[in-house]
Amino acid sequence: MRLFKKKAFSIFASSVLAVSMLAGCGGGGQSTAPATNGETKQDAGQAQGELLAKIGVVSFLTGSGSAYGEAITNGLKMAQEELNEVNAGKLKVELVIEDSAGKKDQAISAVNKLINNDNVVGIIGPTLSGEMFAAGPVANQNGVPIMGTSTTAEGITDIGEYVFRNALPESIAIPEAIKTAVEKHGVKKVALMYASNNDFAVSGYKTMEQAVKDMGLEVVDTQTFADGDTDYSAQLTAVASKKPDAVLVSALYKEAGLVLAKAREMGLDVPFVGGNGFNSPQLVKQAGAAADHSYVATPWYPSGSEKVDAFVKKYTEKYGKGPDQFAAQAYDALYIMANSVLNAGVADDRDALKDALMELKDFEGVTGKFAFNENRDPVMEVKVLHIEGGEFVLVQ
């Protein structure tokens, strides 16, 4: 195989050297050892002439948002097994998995390790938008394609030409969810709540604020909190006193679940509209019946086609629970990257992978038909879901 093209990154040299001293968590794949002649040895179990694509993964596997990372890596591993079976003799996909714990410095460290030690051709992850804003520039400066499967904040792909995502941006999803709530419930006045110390949540709040303005709705109150807070009584008392027709919340599932539980306990029974943090069964697990009467937009719904039904059945049998949006988008992401490697015809050329990703058209995944636009953002259909009886139900 051809050696990777190396790119100078002098302005990052000192920072990368410092970051590389941070300990990375254990990888999930087997490494190929470099031979003395500079060529890469054939991996054990790799067929003669078969392309070997080493793909890095940075995922939120430990900490308060680990359910996101668990779903993502489950989806990736299932896709890996399928791809290696169907492409036997043509392509073998190897995943090298690193845990970021939802922390920016660990995400940077993981990306550096994957690029410089593991020599991956591309990276999937990290999980949070804030992590991507921190680690994405490292991958971009090194000329390594990096694809977020759950990075929905505004500005992600503005990081650079090597940064992609198959996650539906909140700038598209949130307005659709708000619009549905307005149409269903005649909403005219809203209150906004968001985690002010979380990049993803702040971006979601700004999108909510703009969408509300565009729709001519009145904002009667805005309240902030922080990731890790457990008591939302003061914020919700203030919100309830303003009598909004709906409450819009931008937060991860843990905090969002606690907000919903306290709101319903206080008798605040108006519709809630969430950002991408609401797109997890963990929200219902956290909030219980209090999650009912909430809206969220997504590209994923676990029904509606033979392809989706087969994916849900297989995933549930394999992991003992159904897939969520994060599992589905990760599953599609590996197929997108693997198909792009095959289309490029080479597994160790990062620029060839980037070009093949840009040329991808009409990919049919479990999240629907997909392509990248000129800004490397997804072109896909939006679905709005309503939580009823602890279940995500498609709004017709």
What report would you give on this structure?
The protein folds into 2 domains: about 10-170 and about 305-380, Rossmann fold; about 170-300, 3-Layer(aba) Sandwich (Rossmann fold), CATH 3.40.50.2300. By secondary structure, the chain is an alpha/beta fold. The strands form 3 sheets. Strands 7-6-8-9-10-14-15 form a 7-stranded mixed sheet, with helices on both faces. Strands 2-1-3-4-5 form a 5-stranded parallel sheet, sandwiched between helices. The protein has a 3-stranded antiparallel sheet with strand order 11-12-13. Residues about 1-40 have low confidence and may be disordered. It is elongated, with a radius of gyration of 21 Å. The chain has 12 helices and 15 strands. The longest helix has 21 residues, at about 65-85. Helix 5 (about 170-185) packs across helix 6 (about 200-215).
Output the keywords.
396 residues; alpha/beta; Rossmann fold; 2 domains; seven-stranded mixed β-sheet
Could you provide a short overview of the structure?
The protein has 2 domains: 10-168 and 306-379, Response regulator (Rossmann fold); 170-298, Response regulator (Rossmann fold, 3-Layer(aba) Sandwich). The protein contains 12 helices and 15 strands.
